[in-house]
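To the team - pyridoxal-5'-phosphate complex, inputs and output below.
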Amino acid sequence: VESLNRPLVDALRRSQDQERRSFHMPGHKGVAGPLDEVLGHGISAADLSEMDGWFPYLHAPSGELSEAQALAAQRWGADATFFLVNGSTVGNLAAVLACVGEGDELLMCRGSHRSVYAGISLTGATPLYLLPARHEALDGEFTVSVDDAAALLDEHPQVKAIHLTRPNYYGMCTDIDAFVGLARDRGIPLIVDEAHGAHFGLHADLPRSAVVAGADIVIQSTHKTLGALTQASMLHVRCSGVVNERRLAQQLQTLQSSSPSVLLSASLDIARAAATDDEMARVVGLALQARRDLAGVVGLALHGDDLIGTGGVVEFDPTKLVIDVQGLGRNGFAVADELRSEFGIGIELADGNRIVCSITVGDTEESVTDLVKALSNLSQTASASAIAVPSMVTPTQAVTIRAAEHCSTQTIALTESQDRVCAEYVIPYPPGIPLVAPGEVITANVLTAIADFQAAGSRIVGPSDPTLATIAVIND
Ligand SMILES: Cc1ncc(COP(=O)(O)O)c(C=O)c1O
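Output:
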């Protein structure tokens, strides 16, 4: 039976049976205690250390771990899969470090997760940014285009790799085939951050995974949309000769803990085995049911396949319920607050015009019914109006991110900071695209955008002063 095919779980059980007494780490020695009281019976016993010699080691995969990784590679259509215990964060870091070095150019989305920027800083590479185009109908910036990527590559023929984020937080996917074609034409690796698409390719109604489309490295947060424990993620590789797999494995060893959690890696085996075709059909069925039910709620407009063919969107993830709430006469943040405080419902994200709810393996008919009921009740009590989503700004780089992070800095009033070189990130969430990164100039446009995003209710991440009354700049 597919769901029982879990080699790492078997290894875990065997190790538990074999060792009667531990005189090594972890300190809790697998004995039921406070951890079990709070986190669940059996958690200490399952939290093995590779030191005991009975469980395979993440950094030197063998036996059941190799088998579990091979089963994952098979499920997603990769040549090889690495289990990650530090999230897609470490996947992005290792991929960037494996593909580019000091002074190399990397083509990347301006809206990349901060781990990609961290990779740039660690390598000393130079980023070339792909800016998302403005989507007029949705009043925001969402998807990058392959034409822009091709134009940048023409201008910079020395680019060493492309890093693409697909899908975005809203389940929108750019043209992966075109990106694969572009990377192959240029003979450079395509790294895809598929953090929000671990379920891709596991059902015909879901977007294809970039793995199957032919990307060279694909990173997925198995914990985000499938059933793995938080942090547990996977990195899939296509062994085409364009990526140095030995270097990639070496970077993962360097960056991840030398005491990788067995709980996390076993949870990847469990999540993969649980994501059967039937289970994924159930999840997609729930998402489609939610879509049908919500379509009847006055004041809500649900996005889905209507987005395909607009603003560079080629595929759309139906499990992301992107709900425009402007018809309720209120903004996404207000709706998110009310869902939480009045109905005990937490959502994936809110912006000025909409909310996003994610349907996953953790959902049931009851959970979907609760969501639909709450949203139906909301629609009868309109309040605070929609907020326009501010525009992003085009970055002006003065020095590299790495140089800016190593310069001497000072903290000054934001109002005094125009034309100074920033020493930190200023990233409004949503949309999660940096307004300014270390080494970039704080232009008048940046200052206007900061004010606009603050007024729109975005949470600003990155600055040491979260109020942004002050900002760190590099000394002249
Ligand atoms: C696009 C994207 N990439 C990477 C990450 C990092 O993933 P993880 O939390 O698994 O480290 C995130 C997390 O939010 C993300 O949104």
